[in-house]
Amino acid sequence: MSFTFKSPAPEKSTDLAKANINRITAFPNPYYCINASETSRFNKYIQFTNMPPAATVRIFNLAGHLVRVLRKNDQSTFFKWDLANESNYPVASGMYIVYIEVPDVGTKVVKIAVIQEQELLDLY
To answer: Distance between CA 81 and CA 10 in Å, rounded?
Structure first.
């Protein structure tokens, strides 16, 4: 016994892509010192879910200063931010506004709360 299945090729739908932008979220939010998925205390991150294949992610602090620009260009629906600024230093505790721009589709704004653990210096 054999079966044959035929299906039409998937079509690119702008309406569907615009609806999917509203599903983008950040996890964990708030970020409170640790993410259960982190493998070490030096590998901190917040993960964005339901991301499209291509996007530009701009992260701002509440003063409106640009903290980091990240570019996503892969088929994964997940995207990680390592909680670092453009100079690769850890960001401070506080609120952040994430502006996600999807080419030819639209934008999404996500608000994130970050609470960093206390830094202990070995040498000072």
So the answer is: 31
